[in-house]
Amino acid sequence: SPLNPLFQAMESEVSAAFDHGEPEDILSRAFKLTVTREDICTLQPLGWLNDRIMNFYMGLLVERSKKEGYPAVYAFNTFFYSKLSSTSHKGVRKWTKGVDIFEHDVILVPIHLRIHWTLLVVDLREKTIKYFDSLGQRGDHICRTVLKYLEEESREKRNIELTASEWTLHSMGTEEIPQQNNGSDCGVFVCKFADFISRDKPIIFTPEHMPYFRRKMVWEIIHQQLL
């Protein structure tokens, strides 16, 4: 098939990224982030994705959302939620300097819970806050923390009061979203939840897609382009 040579070229690039060179070699640079071979190697089978990979991928999703036909996406970085939950709005008010997050359709909040990645998604069009956990744990308190943040951010930045009762908060159940079947794929799940949501697509992937998604993400990060 005509796709084969392309696929083979991609495969050899991915293998080279894993196998050749020094851990500190820089393989990609964008969004004020540098990604090294060591970072890329977290995308090897059963690797734990690190903050750089997560934040770089969120950057790619935001970049894509500027194109025609995509919802406007804003993504917080992986350090935002831990800072917010430990300090309240005051501790993160400068994070949105010069940005009106309410001008977007979707806000992505990747969350690092010590040894697990999850995702919180604010849909400003629907007034929903949803929590996605590939291990099926609930995050109702996380949804409430972020709603409180949105109320304070709206009050301070736009002088507009949000009506909390108009908002729907929901932790996605294990029957609603795919669940990981190992202890290391949570970061990939978060990236792919965010990918599908930021295209307004239903989440239809399965744990079986993970090895393929990992290799695809290597290529996308190196080329700074989503396939």
Automatic annotation (TrEMBL):
Pfam hit, one: Peptidase_C48
SUPFAM superfamilies the UniProt entry points to: Cysteine proteinases (SSF54001)
Matches recorded under PROSITE patterns: ULP_PROTEASE
A Gene Ontology cellular-component term: nucleus
Listed GO biological process terms: protein desumoylation; proteolysis; regulation of macromolecule metabolic process; regulation of primary metabolic process
Keywords: Hydrolase, Protease, Thiol protease
Domain Ubiquitin-like protease family profile: 33-197
Spans through the membrane: none
GO molecular function, one term: deSUMOylase activity
Family from the record: Belongs to the peptidase C48 family.
Protein name: SENP2 protease
